[in-house]
Predict the structure.
Amino acid sequence: MPRKIKNDFPIFRQAKTFKPWVYLDSAATSQKPKAVIEAEKDWYEKYNANIHRGIYHLSEQATELIEGVRQRVADFIGAESKRSIIFTSGTTDGINLVAQSWARHYLKQGDVVLLTEMEHHANLVPWQRLAEELKLELRFWPIDKQGRLELEGMDQLFREVKLLAITQVSNVLGTVNPLQKIIKAAHRKRIRVVVDGAQSVPHFAVNMKRLKADFFVFSAHKMLGPTGVGVVYINPELFSKVREYRLGGGMIREVSKKKASFADLPWRLEAGTLPLAQIFALREAIGYLEKVGMVRIMRHDQLLTKYAYQKLMQIKEVQIVGPAPKQRSGLISFVVDDIHPHDLATWLDQYHICVRAGHHCAMPLHQKLKLPATVRASFYIYNDKRDIDIFIRALRQIINKWRKQ
Ligand SMILES: Cc1ncc(COP(=O)(O)O)c(C=O)c1O
């Protein structure tokens, strides 16, 4: 990827005296190109009005712009129609929405919900709460030594299951799960599938018509877009099965003192005022990703991951978790002998290198790995081999210093 891309991101172009960041934490949140930052400002300077409410021109224009973004999102993920696209505040909010507006009505006492051992807390804790309230059984799909789902015995695993909630890409292991195959097998057993797409949508093309997920959830802020916006895709087959769960303005058809009737989807699930400036700016994020090209982004991220993986493997104190580069997306988590991940991240920070250390909101996975924490380096379109070289050099220096102590 050309250096030019980095220049589109103001955070990397601060004053000459400022030592540039080596930003390796895009799995937590991505940086934003100027076009996205400008779009948010543009909204307030040129278009700001609430939507679906005013009958004056500015409000009608605002409505058209936001509904236009809904269509843009639908096209970006290959959804059948924009009615499938619900705006939320992020993946966490989206999974809670699926649990409360649909699963709560679909599941009943004794039903089995299957999760995987690699889920982020966002795709675990909402199901724990629902299981507690409805007396459901939670089961867990185990991972193998390389951090991949064990696919043999899938049919056995699916026995009695009514709902599978699964991530497309693990935010710790980097594993890309073969979702098309998994969803097909699940549907053969009449199991509904909820997908956490937080770590996949930013890195490679997804297509709802091909994937056929029942629900698919992701966040704008990990794909160059603003914070505060997320998306839930609902398969049209389930339109009649979701029930509004946040109640108030913007989602109703008619209200009397004692009763209310509700708008159609998608608005029925969008109570209150949406983060309009941020949704507007999401359009620019999608535009940017499309201009670069999702295939090119995927190849770039894979190339960097492979490069970093090989360099890390050459350091004998480093132990990487997760599969070989071929089966992973753009991130690598690892530990270094007896250096605590938090110390390592703090020392890397002294080199202006941003990595994440901790359990990355996946405590059960770390328990399985028998590690209290890991260090995670994640890559995106603005990273290059130079970033990795700086990171590896710093890591070697830190390890050498540690050894001499
Ligand atoms: C796999 C996965 N799921 C869910 C989330 C939660 O996303 P958000 O914080 O945007 O709600 C994250 C964020 O790190 C993630 O990596």
Notes: The chain has two domains: 4-24+294-404, 37-290. The mean pLDDT is 96.
